Amino acid sequence: MSAPAIDRRELRRTLACFPTGVTVVTAVAPNGEYVGLTVNSFNSLSLDPPLVLWSLTSASRSLAAFEQAKHFAVNILADEQVEISRLFSSRATRKFTGLELKPGIGGAPLIAGCAAYIECRIHSRQRGGDHMLFIGEVERHRASSKRPLVFVHGRYVSGPVP
Ligand SMILES: Cc1cc2nc3c(=O)[nH]c(=O)nc-3n(C[C@H](O)[C@H](O)[C@H](O)COP(=O)(O)O)c2cc1C
Questions:
Q1: Structure pTM?
Q2: I need a surface site. Which of 2, 32, 76, 84 has the fewest CB within 10 A?
């Protein structure tokens, strides 16, 4: 018997049962402009060597910049940063204007007030369906005691997450 056809909407609903943190992944384009978007496909991959991964839709306006970048930064959002998540998941063209930023390794911007930061050198890329999988080698990281923002069932959850 062949596998049943997968309905895209139902698949999204099922995947949304998996709670995740929320990150903004950033890099610098060859022309010096910052690029960044809200990402919840981020995850850890390996401790030795220290590797993390995330995937980028091929519809992203930032695809070319991330493909050419040598570094990216993962800004793990704190629970009071829902507006940052909304901004970076929007089609806004000037996402970084007015934000407090610090340049990370390779110039990838770090957004002030996040729960944690992971700065990576791009280790490898691989196409996976309609997304590009990025694997990064961790070059620097910093954690804080801030509560992380959580996303589940298509909604942000802020509150008592340990
Ligand atoms: C909570 C959340 C998580 C998201 N995770 C991803 C992701 O992992 N990969 C991705 O390509 N887009 C993800 N998106 C969608 C992008 O943030 C959105 O398409 C954004 O507009 C892309 O910006 P760009 O075209 O400027 O790159 C997510 C959106 C939200 C709200």
A1: 0.96
A2: 2
